[in-house]
Every structure is written in C-alpha cells, then in structure tokens.
Write a structure and sequence with these properties.
The structure holds two protein chains of two kinds.
Chain A lengths: L5 E3 L2 E3 L3 E3 L21 E7 L12 E4 L2 E4 L8 H12 L5 E6 L4 H12 L4 E7 L16 H14 L3 E5 L7 H10 L4 E4 L3 E4 L1 E2 L4 E2 L5 E5 L4 H14 L4 E4 L5 H9 L4 E4 L2 H4 L3 H15 L15
Parallel strand pairs in A: 3-4, 3-16, 4-7, 7-8, 8-9, 9-10, 10-15, 15-16
Antiparallel strand pairs in A: 1-2, 5-6, 6-14, 11-14, 12-13
Helix pairs in contact in A: 2-3, 3-4, 4-5, 5-6, 6-8
Chain B lengths: L1 H9 L7 E14 L2 E8 L11 E4 L11 E4 L2 E3 L4 E7 L3 H7 L6 E8 L10 E7 L4 H12 L3 E8 L16 E6 L6 E2 L17 E5 L2 H13 L4 E4 L15 E4 L2 E4 L6 E3 L19
Classes of the chains: A alpha/beta, B alpha/beta.
C-alpha cells in the first residue's frame, strides 16, 4: 500500500491532486462525474469583496492545445459566498481552499477576514495574478513591493494556511516568490495564466472582448514546469504546481520539479474525470517504481 | 399550466449528467457542410429533454482541444441510439464530419435546461440552417403532447433546407429561402405564417442565427407570444464551471450552458424591440 498523502504547511491532503480555481466551479458542478471527496483538495472559484459581473462576452478563445479566457473574476461577492455557497461546501470532507482576489489591499483583507471565520475553509489562495481585470489582480503580483504589501496585509488578519498564487507574466517569478515568502506566505502556487491574445483575421478584430486574455492548457505546461523548478529551488515553503496538467505524467513531472502538490485546471473542461484518473495513475506509478510514499517524488529530479 | 412550466424547468438541474462512449453507426452527408451522425450507446441512455445539448470530445484533431457542443437532435431510448447534426465550421467539426461507422465518440450529456413544453396547443417552431437541430426532438415531443405544430425552416437556398420532408411526420412544414429556390422567397420573418396580425400560436420556439432569432422574437413580442430561443455561444466546460459562455440577461451575466441554452427572449438584455437600437423588422 503506497502513501498518497502530502502535507502542505498545516494542510494534510489525502493526495497531491487539487483543482485550479476557476476551472472547477464550487465542486458541485462535478458531483455527477466524480467523487469530489477523492481529491486532495479543491480551490473554488475566486471570491472578491463585492459582486462582479466579469467581462463582456466573448470571454474565451480556443488555441492550439489550450484556451484563452477573459472571464474577469465573475462572482457574487464574499457575503454571498459566506451565506449561500459556503453551506454547500460543508458536504465535502477534503481540503477546501478559497481563492481570494480584489482590486485593493483593503478588499483582499476584507475577504480574507471573512474567510478566516469559516471553519471548513482550510486555507486561502491569494490571487495576485489574474490578468483579466483592469484594476488589481495581476497588478499586485507583478512587482515585489505590491506583492509584499498585499501578502503582509492579509497575513495580519488570516491565521490559517496562506497560499499565494503567482503570475508568470513577470521578469523573474523567483523574486516574487521570495518576496511573498518573506511577507508571510505559507505556500506558493504557480502559475496563473500567461497573458495572450487571439485575432480573427477575417474580421480584423480581436476574438476576446478584452482583446487580451489568460492562456491555459497543455500549451503552457513547459513554461509552468520551468517556473516551478526555479521557484522550488529558491524558496523554503511548499510549492503547488499548476499549468496545463492533463495526465499522470504531467503531475509527476511537476512533483519531480519540486511541487508538493498540483492543481488540474483547464483539463477539467475536456475531461471532468481527469483528476481522479491522475490520482489512480500516480498510485500506479509509485507501485511500478517501488516508491511507498508520494512525498519521495517531490524535487526528486535527477540532474 | 404555469406551475407545470416551472416544474419542468426545475427538472434539468436535477438530471444526472453522464459521460458515454458512443459507437458511430452511420454518417450521412446532408449537403456540402452538414452531416447527420447516428450513434449507439452500449449503456442505456439517460432521459433527455428537447433543447438540451451534448458536449462532444474531438479526437484526432491536433488543433482542437475543447469539446464541441451540439443540440440533442434525435434520441431513441428503445435502441439506445442518438443523432447529432454537425455543421462543419472549423477543424473540430470537420473532424467529426469525417467520422466513420465503428468510430468511437465520447459525449457528455444531457446538458442545459431544454425547452418548456406546451400541451394541447398550437405552436410555431422556427429554424434557420443548422438551427433545426434541436427542433426534431422538440417537434416529436410536442406531437406526443398533442400540440398542433407549424415548423418554419429558413435558409439562403434550397440546399440549406435540411430534412424538411422528414419533419412532416411531426409538423406542418413551411419553407423560406432567400433566393426563392424552395418555398416562399425571403427571410423566415417575411413568410406568410408570420404575416397575421394575430398569430394563432401559444408559444414560438426558435433556433438559428442571432439576427433571425431577434427578428422572430420582435414579432412574438408585439403579439404577446412567449418566444423561446436556443442560444449558441462559445463554450469551454458545458457544465457551468468556467463561466465563459455567458449571455447578458435582465439578471446579469448567465451561463448559456446551465441557465440556457433556452431562454425566453425577453429575459435577454437588448432583445426586446423596445430597448433595441437601430433594428428594423422590415430589413
């Protein structure tokens, strides 16, 4: 019997497979297809201090081996989350993580404070990397001083595990990772989407209403893998790998590069059962390689 | 009748969604860019409603990553078979149009809400091009509910009018083509069945190009007839997780995949003739 459990700061995950925010709704959308409790954890759709309608349609453009999105943090705000969505999450016994975003430091703090009071939310993932909102979002995650400011402010009001989700749209993601570690982050997750663009040549128009959007899917995996490897070597806190993970091999590669856990994102749209297939695949891999603890894969790359 | 409607609308959210591997039985080319795929499931098909859709995985196309949504065109529970109508508009749909008998097709279904069904009423169905896809299943169910159905099909030319004769078993079929090669000449909105100042229909069901649906909706609105439109937006997940396929409604952005694809046209922002700017019915 192999051990699939991993420890992520104070979180005990039953396995290293989680779902990326914005690709898994609030879990219930997937209840018909998988046992959501079988996952290591789920990171639910981003919550902001106020209701947001998100960006205008069209918000999505398919690209080779991936997609661009410009949803823009559509959600009903933290108070709605607490009243209406949180009670529905109580049925899950695995690790539930809230993704927190906003336009101002005060907004991030307000959401974090309210999430702190919810017993069943084991951690928050601070989203300082959404490329699809005009103010805030990625702006916080692309410079060290602003990343430090928002992480510090949230750290002061949030007692549980604080994960900071990093943007790949920077010159050095390692510098940002070190900055948020210094500011009190318990873990970092990376990468959020890569800023991209799609054009309809026939119409001479951008495909997305916002012109640019966030690229995800297998197309970004090599970039994500490289960044996870760089960051994992630089920081002491755990790293969660995200970026185009679709298969068991993808998940294993991220762990070898130094990730303590991984998030499956866009693949959920193509195969709602991708996560549970990856979990089964990791178990097979461990048996095949005579490894009895998945933790032994973390950073075990032979270079 | 109202409570019946509400009851029916509430069912789709409770219907369990499935992922099923189908085997292609036949692939019939209907014209230059439409194919009818008949497929069989090894497991019993779940109950589906007219207007609901399926998300189809496209294997064997290197540029197609996401699933493709298609209306449930026909379903036969006794033989566990289903038909999808495919219009080739890009690499993904072209790959599906090239499927051969025996090929596998991975399908998520049933998704979305479906049309609210009338009973013992006179109704009109309007389909433009491949917009007739959900209307087969709908016309069949309406007949079972003892409705008297008129079906108006529109297209540019005779070759765009698909399977009109096959629909006659469920409905009185009317045709409009822009070039006059079949049926009346002009758009569906100029057809004689829509000319009356007091249309005899309890509901109008519509699926087709955006402009056509808006124009039909304006006619229905003028006469106080509910117009149910089936929307087609670019989708990723099909199950309400990604929030990509939203449409602007009176209640803000809503997902076409889970809150639709069928909407009462007056729920949609900018669809009412009173609020729309620069639109003429006579166009």
């Amino acid at each position: 019997m192999v051990n699939l459990g991993v420890k992520l700061h104070k979180l005990n995950l039953r396995n290293p497979v989680m779902t990326a925010s914005g690709t898994f709704g609030y879990g219930e959308e997937f209840d018909d297809f998988i046992d959501v409790n079988a996952l290591g954890g789920i990171i639910v759709k981003a919550t902001t201090s106020k209701h947001r309608e998100g960006n205008a349609y069209p918000r999505m453009a398919e690209t080779p081996m991936g997609m661009l999105n410009a949803v823009g943090l559509q959600n009903k705000g933290v108070d709605y989350f607490v009243d209406k969505i949180y009670p529905k999450l109580l049925k899950y016994s695995n690790c539930i993580v809230a993704n927190v975003s906003d336009s101002t430091v005060e907004g991030y703090v307000e959401v974090a404070e309210k999430m702190n009071r919810l017993d069943h939310i084991a951690a928050i993932e601070l989203n300082i990397s959404c490329p699809n909102v005009k103010e805030g979002g990625m702006a916080f995650g692309t410079s060290c001083p602003s990343a430090i400011a928002v992480t510090r402010a949230v750290r002061e009001v949030y007692d549980k595990t604080l994960i900071v989700k990093l943007s790949p749209n920077v010159t050095s993601i390692t510098e940002i990772a070190l900055a948020v570690e210094e500011a009190g982050a318990d873990a970092v997750s990376l990468i959020n989407t890569l800023l991209g663009m799609a054009i309809d040549a026939e119409k001479r128009k951008p495909v997305l209403s916002t012109i640019t959007g966030g690229l995800s899917g297998p197309a970004i995996k090599p970039v994500a893998l490289r960044m996870v490897w760089q960051v994992a070597r630089a920081v002491k806190i755990p790293v969660i790998g995200i970026g185009g993970i679709t298969t068991t091999a993808d998940a294993i590669e991220f762990m070898l590069a130094g990730a303590s856990a991984i998030q499956v994102g866009t693949a959920n749209f193509v195969d709602p059962q991708a996560t549970v297939k990856i979990i089964a695949g990791i178990e097979d891999y461990l048996v095949r390689h005579r490894i009895n603890d998945v933790g032994q894969l973390i950073g075990a790359l032979n270079t | 009748m109202r409570t019946f409607f509400l009851l029916l609308i509430s069912i789709p959210g409770l219907m369990k969604k499935h992922i099923i591997d189908f085997k292609i039985l036949t692939n019939t080319a209907l014209n230059h860019n439409h194919n009818l795929l008949e497929m069989e499931s090894a497991v019993p098909l779940p109950e589906m409603l007219p207007g609901q859709f399926a998300e189809v995985r496209v294997d064997g196309s290197e540029t197609t990553y996401l699933r493709r949504p298609f209306s449930i065109h026909r379903v036969d529970y006794s033989s566990n078979t289903m038909h999808l109508l495919i219009k080739s508009v890009g690499k993904g749909t072209e790959t599906l149009a090239g499927l051969k008998p025996g090929d596998k097709l991975n399908v998520m279904l049933p998704l979305g809400n479906g049309f609210p069904l009338e009973e013992n009423k006179k109704v009109l169905l309007v389909g433009g091009g491949c917009g007739i896809a959900p209307l087969w299943f709908l016309a069949k169910e309406l007949k079972l509910k003892n409705c008297s159905t008129d079906l108006l099909i529109g297209g540019r030319s005779a070759r765009d009018i698909l399977m009109a004769d096959d629909y006659r078993q469920f409905a009185t079929v009317h045709i409009a083509t822009e070039d006059g090669s079949l049926g009346e000449t002009g758009m569906v909105t100029g057809h004689s069945v829509l000319k009356s100042e007091s249309l005899p229909y309890r509901s109008i069901y519509c699926c087709g190009p955006d402009g056509m649906m808006r124009a039909v909706s304006h006619i229905a609105e003028k006469q106080g007839i509910p117009c149910l439109v089936s929307l087609e937006n670019t989708m990723a997940c099909g199950i309400g997780a990604c929030l990509c396929c939203v449409v602007d409604t009176n209640q803000g952005h809503r997902c076409v995949c889970t809150d639709g694809p069928v909407f009462n046209s007056l729920e949609l922002k900018g669809w009412s003739a009173e609020t729309e700017v620069g639109c003429s019915l006579d166009k």
